[in-house]
């Protein structure tokens, strides 16, 4: 088992932010981060206007620069788009360099020790969104700052210095460990390469892999049919032409979130194309229309008012168990995609069903493609 502190894939940042977007929490999270950074800027400004004595003649100018940096960072977090991984890393580095200025500047080291608590925010954020190397660098700066403050305080009150440093170290360790533990327990660390960055849903390879696992584990009599659903947003190109790329991204995120909230917990959901989604699940009957109609209604109920054309294939599960899963899925997805295009040509916002198709990899006799369910 991998450790909670092991190295994670390079796209971990995008995996977590995509999951936030898929759950509609990205905007809220960015505002919380912006509010925290803005509050730190206000704290720095209050120090400038206080009676606290600073070590350097230009100390207040340096603190003013740190406050301006906080306010600029706030603007970045309040933009319509989430910062890129590089932008986020640069902000972490700048924050890790700016905090020591605010903590070392006061002549009274106790003031600096109180300010060093802000390192916990940077450590927690870095542990959650970035890799161990950047986290180790931030921790090194934080601990070095604490050591410097402890040396200064020890000449006045050694027990108080030790107690203050120990308390801050506990705060840093808890912030770093708890955030890393969240990443590890949620499984995003191991599944980062299988997630499509925009929606937080599975990409095609991960969808095929998990559906293959589903085929291998559902060869019992209680689940007799594999259902593959292809969902395509209607008139997506026209939507992008009117609303722009940002509007198109919002539409795809909304559609993914709507389907995530509609399908069953064990269903497999992927975003595999510009406006195309895949769903895999198992049923006891070939009738998947209740699920499909819930998906169609959920997509239509999104704020953008979009609709979707849906193609569905329901096929007996047991004959598939003996065959290579990728070949099975390629053929079934192709059939479902053809059905989806038929629904689109018929006007969209509807579904077309294929029940028990004749698969080239199966020797069992089944009804042909034109066999309708409804």
Compact overview of the structure:
This protein has 374 residues and is an alpha+beta fold. It has helices spanning 12-22, 26-49, 59-77, 85-104, 109-115, 119-129, 132-154, 158-186, 204-217, 236-260, 289-300, 325-345, and strands at 225-233, 268-271, 276-283, 308-316, 351-355.
Protein model, in words:
The protein has two domains: 12-192, no CATH class; 196-355, Alpha-Beta Plaits (2-Layer Sandwich), CATH 3.30.70.270. A five-stranded mixed beta sheet has the order 2-3-1-4-5, sandwiched between helices. It is α+β, with helices and mostly antiparallel strands and 374 residues long. The model is unreliable at 1-10 and 364-374 (pLDDT under 50). A hairpin with a 4-residue loop joins strand 2 (268-271) and strand 3 (276-283). It is elongated, with a radius of gyration of 27 Å. 39% of the residues are buried. It is built from twelve helices and five strands.
Blueprint of the fold:
Layout: H1 12-22, H2 26-49, H3 59-77, H4 85-104, H5 109-115, H6 119-129, H7 132-154, H8 158-186, H9 204-217, E1 225-233, H10 236-260, E2 268-271, E3 276-283, H11 289-300, E4 308-316, H12 325-345, E5 351-355
Parallel strand pairs: 4-5
Antiparallel strand pairs: 1-3, 1-4, 2-3
